[in-house]
């Protein structure tokens, strides 16, 4: 049992590290095909990373420790999240610590690290990107917390493993107004947190609009590789979390065998790939919002999350908290 | 049997006669069609304009018949439990009838003057009659309805019908006033609907049947079984909602605009009786709430609303530059006095409030009709541009001056007696702390009203022409002032009715 | 219909009803707002349908059909007619008194207020329908908010209709609807009020050259 649990943790973390660049490549490929281009292939992000990792490490003159630690810290914090949250199995030795608030905190740690690094460079772009990133995440973090809180009310716990195994047993929770509102709110929050259209455009370096890219403009070589990998892992983890929360079937639970663990891994890959394809397809049709309208979108998703909380409190069909 | 039929007829006529007249005028309008033509020779009222007077006749006749019927009873019903009359209904019907008689008697002269000025033709005249008669029908339905839901529907209908009367001139001012009127009143009164729905919910929870849960006498009889928390929420919404239509804060902003833009006889009807009718709707709901909550809660709410309205009206009266708006703010002042009396809530105070409703209706009708005449004659509604009216048209100036004196609460008019009654009742109920500031504010309003009107009536007429007031326009003014004074000197046979009406509201 | 399914469907209808109100607050394009209002009308009509189905009351089914026609069809159609103005800027709520992000946050506060206000109602009788009462109150409050902060004549009509939809929803959720005669009268009054506002909008265009309510500032003290 314990070996199975540790294997599950390793599988989650390994799948996220290996799969993250593949997911990005897959999304770019879907997008390219929809736009009528051939595309560079699903493995292209891995090739890019390999190229960057072979280069000589260079840091910009006048930067301090914040700039240097940031890439490693970003990857490390995301890796901890990947090991913690129940992507493959809800019964790992550390799933008791998979508290939603802790997970959101770890993700915020990565965001803050990058923002500090952007400020540390002392360039105009870095500061601008950091300030925009902080504005957005100030609205996004409470939204994610509220959405997860709305889902935790029927489960009676903020532990993600408990929420997910509860939802797998009682699917009616997900079709309730609270579940639907929380899904919508979390989807918007994930888009904002990972810097996708319509909040940010990951494939542009247009100075008027860029947010994430502006912060990391000064990185090069292996550091840039880590930053890119970290961003890709965040996207994978958040999509995986969303998939686990709202399509909780197929995840291995306590007492399952090695076979079901492998099955869960395959199901996770399919779910995340499907979500990624959906997101890539949506990005073809959406335009990026003007920066001034981004707070409107985020305020809207915050409102949805709040409505989800109130709805699950007061309509509370299976709740029992009141 | 015959007596039962007569009662049914008396209950039906005040609604049916104006409704039929409205349909008749609408039919005439539809048949006439074609290009508009002038209806009557210049300066002469059109004969059809006098037809409208059938309605006040029907209302007053119905009220007279019902007055004998309702004494010492719980009230009489007609058409199932749709229409109902008690002493309060009769008192309001009498007021509506008297005010409507004055306003409709002043209408022919008003329309004739409008036609001469080229602002109206036969067609707009007929439309005017359709809307005014429909307005009266809706108002009488609101007075007679036994069901609170029907009462709400009737009061909202008055808003819809009068919207085009307020906006009849299609100028920027008219459109603005009409828009504000419809939006604020409809939204405000929607709150009252919400309150009524909550009362219905509470009544159903208290075990009342679907048919009786909105029926006023049934609700009043079983009000002590209603859930207090729900009733409290409901009565606050109802005070806000019907208060909006009665010109009380916080949803009063439509009133000065609408009253200054409507044609003078319509302003008289809206100010004189429509405000009072919706306030009475509020009072009926208050009777229910008091039985469920005890008198303290609604008294506090009404006192706050009344004093705030009074302070606002007094301040704006002091700085007023437009005489029709001045009269509108004076209406708010008087509605807040009536609300003050209702807040005190003793039989004596309620008697005084009801008397005040009638006296204010009569005096305000005369004031608005005279103001409309002044507007037609001078072509401006700005106080500063009207000077020396007493020297140029003495009869009109005297009518306006006397009406303003009545509104300021001077004897011998009935408003003096009723204000005195409200103050005395307030002191004896231990609410002196509220009555004293109210008195100060009334004095401020008095000063504002007095100085502005004096400026218009007195002063050097300059070289402006002298204008005579015709008998058709003058008679309603004289009749209204006489009725208001008579009511003040001797309520006489109406005394018993007034006591019965107050007793309806105290639930004894 | 089992109680669990009934509760689930009723909650879904109420959720859609509230969400439509929030989306109205979110959008600027008035033609889209009117479409959302139509969706809200249908969600509103679903409430008496579900209650009537669950409690076996045929009258409620008829009322539901009438409501769907009026609130989901006729009133949005009338509003759309009022939007056939010549200019593009007429069809957008360009500068509300409170910007969209702040209005959305206000809507969140109003929803919490609605839950606080309705506690005594829910406490009186805790059925699945009365538990959804805060939704009706939230829509009433949001409607009032739209009415106060929007500066285009058609948006104020939208606010008025939100207010009225909310009250109708409260009536059905609290007491399975007011008596039929009152319901008919209320619906008729609302229809007439919207017609009157429609005509006044036309006149406003003629007199002011637009539907911007900031132009209405001639009458004051």
Automatic annotation (TrEMBL), chain A:
- Keywords in alphabetical order, please: Lyase, Membrane, Transmembrane, Transmembrane helix
Q: Which Pfam families match?
A: NADHdh (PF00146)
Q: Name one GO cellular component term.
A: plasma membrane
Transmembrane spans: 6-27, 69-88, 100-122, 143-168, 174-192, 235-255, 261-285, 297-316
Q: What is its main location?
A: membrane
Q: Give the subcellular location.
A: Membrane
Please name the GO terms that the record assigns under molecular function: lyase activity
Keyword Manganese among record annotations: no
| Membrane-protein topology | Multi-pass membrane protein
**What's this protein's name?**
Formate hydrogenlyase subunit 4
Origin species, per record, is Streptomyces smaragdinus
UniProtKB/TrEMBL annotation, chain B:
Can you say what this protein is called?
Putative NAD(P)H-quinone oxidoreductase subunit 2
Its subcellular locations are:
Cell membrane; Membrane
| Parts of the chain that traverse the membrane | 90-113, 134-166, 178-202, 233-254, 266-285, 297-319, 331-350, 389-410, 430-449, 469-491
**Matching Pfam families:** Proton_antipo_M
**Amino-acid biosynthesis in keyword set:** no
Q: Name one GO cellular component term.
A: plasma membrane
Sorted UniProt keywords: Cell membrane, Membrane, Oxidoreductase, Transmembrane, Transmembrane helix
Tell me what topology the record assigns in the membrane: Multi-pass membrane protein
- Which coarse location class applies to the principal site listed for this UniProt protein? membrane
Biological process (GO) annotations held by this record are: ATP synthesis coupled electron transport
Q: What is the lineage of its organism?
A: Bacteria, Bacillati, Actinomycetota, Actinomycetes, Kitasatosporales
Protein's UniProt keywords contain Transmembrane helix: yes
Q: Which residues form the NADH:quinone oxidoreductase/Mrp antiporter transmembrane domain?
A: 145-440
**InterPro entries per the UniProt record, alphabetical:** ComplexI-like_HydComp, NADH_UbQ_OxRdtase, ND/Mrp_TM
Give an example GO molecular function.
oxidoreductase activity
EC number(s) in its UniProt entry? 1.6.5.11
Automatic annotation (TrEMBL), chain C:
Q: Which GO terms describe its cellular component?
A: plasma membrane
Keywords in alphabetical order: Cell membrane, Membrane, Transmembrane, Transmembrane helix
Keyword Glycoprotein belongs to the record: no
Q: What is its main location?
A: membrane
- Compartments, as annotated in UniProt: Cell membrane
Kindly give the membrane topology term recorded for this protein. Multi-pass membrane protein
Report TM segments.
6-27, 34-54, 60-79, 100-117, 129-148, 157-175, 181-200
Under PANTHER family, the record lists: HYDROGENASE-4 COMPONENT E
This chain's protein is named: Hydrogenase-4 component E
Question: What organism does the UniProt record list as the source?
Answer: Streptomyces smaragdinus
């Amino acid at each position: 049992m314990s070996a199975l649990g540790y294997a599950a943790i390793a599988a989650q973390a390994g799948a996220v590290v290996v799969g993250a660049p593949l997911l990005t490549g897959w999304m770019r490929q879907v997008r390219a095909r929809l736009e009528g281009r051939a595309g560079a292939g699903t493995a292209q992000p891995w090739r890019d990373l390999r190229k960057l990792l072979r280069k000589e490490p260079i840091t910009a003159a006048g930067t301090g420790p914040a700039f240097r630690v940031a890439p490693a810290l970003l990857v490390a914090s995301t890796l901890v999240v990947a090991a913690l949250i129940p992507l493959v199995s809800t019964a790992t030795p550390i799933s008791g610590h998979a508290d939603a608030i802790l997970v959101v905190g770890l993700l915020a740690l990565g965001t803050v690290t990058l923002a500090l690094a952007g400020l540390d460079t002392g360039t105009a772009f870095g500061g601008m990107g950091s300030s925009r990133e902080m504005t957005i995440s100030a609205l996004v973090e409470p939204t994610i917390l509220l959405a997860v809180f709305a889902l935790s009310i029927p489960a009676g716990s903020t532990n993600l493993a408990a929420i997910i195994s509860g939802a797998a047993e009682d699917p009616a929770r997900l079709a309730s107004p609270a579940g639907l509102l929380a899904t919508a709110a979390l989807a918007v929050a994930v888009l904002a947190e990972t810097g996708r259209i319509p909040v940010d455009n990951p494939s542009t370096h247009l100075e008027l609009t860029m947010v994430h890219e502006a912060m990391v403009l000064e990185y090069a070589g292996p550091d840039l590789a880590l930053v890119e990998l970290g961003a890709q892992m965040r996207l994978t983890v958040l999509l995986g979390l969303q998939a686990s929360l709202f399509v909780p079937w197929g995840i291995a639970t306590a007492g399952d065998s090695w076979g079901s663990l492998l099955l869960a891994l395959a199901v996770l890959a399919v779910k995340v790939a499907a979500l990624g394809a959906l997101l890539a397809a949506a990005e073809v049709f959406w335009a990026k919002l003007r920066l001034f309208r981004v707070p409107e979108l985020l305020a809207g998703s915050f409102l949805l999350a709040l409505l989800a909380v109130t709805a699950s409190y007061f309509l509370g069909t299976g709740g029992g908290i009141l | 049997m015959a007596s039962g039929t007569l009662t049914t007829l008396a209950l039906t006529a005040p609604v049916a006669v104006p409704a039929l007249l409205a349909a008749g005028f609408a039919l005439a309008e539809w048949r006439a069609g074609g290009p508009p033509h002038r209806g009557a020779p210049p300066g002469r009222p059109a004969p059809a304009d006098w037809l409208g007077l059938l309605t006040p006749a029907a209302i007053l006749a119905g009220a007279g018949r019902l007055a004998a019927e309702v004494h010492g009873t719980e009230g009489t019903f007609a058409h199932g439990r749709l229409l109902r009359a008690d002493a309060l209904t009769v008192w309001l019907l009498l007021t509506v009838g008297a005010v409507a008689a004055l306003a409709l008697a002043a209408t022919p002269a008003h329309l004739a003057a409008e036609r001469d000025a080229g602002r109206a033709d036969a067609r707009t005249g007929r439309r005017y009659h359709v809307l005014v008669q429909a307005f009266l029908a809706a108002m009488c339905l609101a007075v007679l309805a036994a069901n609170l839901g029907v009462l709400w529907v009737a009061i909202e209908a008055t808003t819809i019908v009068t919207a085009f009367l307020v906006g009849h001139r299609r100028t920027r001012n008219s459109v603005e006033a009409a828009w504000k009127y419809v939006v604020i009143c409809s939204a405000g009164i929607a709150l009252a609907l919400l309150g009524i729905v909550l009362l219905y919910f509470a009544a159903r929870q208290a075990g009342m049947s679907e048919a009786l849960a909105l029926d006023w006498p049934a609700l009043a009889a079983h009000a002590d079984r209603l859930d207090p928390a729900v009733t409290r929420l409901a009565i606050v919404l109802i005070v806000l909602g019907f208060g909006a239509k009665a010109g009380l804060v916080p949803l009063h902003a439509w009133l000065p605009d609408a009253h200054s833009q409507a044609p003078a006889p319509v302003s008289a009807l809206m100010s004189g009786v429509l405000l009072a009718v919706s306030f009475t709707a509020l009072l009926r709901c208050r009777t229910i709430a008091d039985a469920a909550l005890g008198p303290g809660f609604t008294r506090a709410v009404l006192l706050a609303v009344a004093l705030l309205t009074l302070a606002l009206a007094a301040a704006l009266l002091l700085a007023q530059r437009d005489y029709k708006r001045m009269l509108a703010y004076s209406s708010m002042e008087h509605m807040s006095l009536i609300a003050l009396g209702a807040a005190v809530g003793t039989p004596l105070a309620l008697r005084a409030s009801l008397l005040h409703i009638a006296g204010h209706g009569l005096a305000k009708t005369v004031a608005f009709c005279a103001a409309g005449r002044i507007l037609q004659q001078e072509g401006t509604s700005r106080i500063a541009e009207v000077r020396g009216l007493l020297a140029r048209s003495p009869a009109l100036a005297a009518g306006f001056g006397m009406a303003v004196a009545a509104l300021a609460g001077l004897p011998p008019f009935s408003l003096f007696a009723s204000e005195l009654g409200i103050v005395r009742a307030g002191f004896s109920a231990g609410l002196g702390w509220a009555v004293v500031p109210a008195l100060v504010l009334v004095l401020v309003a008095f000063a504002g009203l007095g100085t502005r009107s004096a400026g218009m009536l007195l002063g050097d007429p300059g070289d402006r022409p002298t204008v005579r007031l015709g008998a058709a326009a003058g008679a309603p003014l004289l009749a209204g002032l006489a009725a208001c004074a008579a009511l003040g000197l001797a309520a006489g046979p109406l005394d018993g009715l007034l006591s019965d009406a107050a007793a309806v509201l105290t639930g004894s | 219909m089992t109680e669990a399914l009934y509760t689930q469907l009723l909650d879904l209808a109420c959720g859609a009803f509230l969400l439509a109100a929030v989306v109205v607050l979110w959008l600027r394009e008035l033609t889209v707002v009117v479409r959302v209002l139509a969706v809200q009308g249908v969600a509103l009509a679903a409430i008496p349908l579900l209650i009537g189905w669950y409690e076996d009351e045929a009258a409620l089914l008829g009322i539901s059909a009438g409501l769907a026609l009026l609130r989901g069809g006729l009133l949005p159609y009338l509003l759309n007619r009022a939007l056939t103005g010549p200019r593009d800027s007429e069809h957008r709520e360009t500068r509300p008194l409170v910007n969209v992000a702040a209005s959305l946050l206000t809507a969140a506060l109003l929803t919490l207020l609605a839950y606080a206000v309705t506690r005594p109602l829910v406490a009186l009788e805790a059925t699945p329908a009365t538990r959804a009462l805060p939704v009706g109150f939230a829509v009433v409050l949001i409607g009032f908010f739209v009415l106060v902060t929007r500066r285009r004549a058609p948006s104020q009509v939208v606010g008025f209709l939100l207010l009225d939809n909310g009250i109708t929803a409260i009536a059905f959720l609290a007491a399975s609807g007011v008596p039929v005669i009152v319901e008919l009268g209320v619906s008729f009054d609302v229809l007439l009020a919207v017609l009157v506002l429609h005509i006044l909008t036309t006149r406003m265009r003629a007199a002011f050259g637009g539907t911007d309510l900031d132009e209405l500032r001639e009458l004051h003290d």
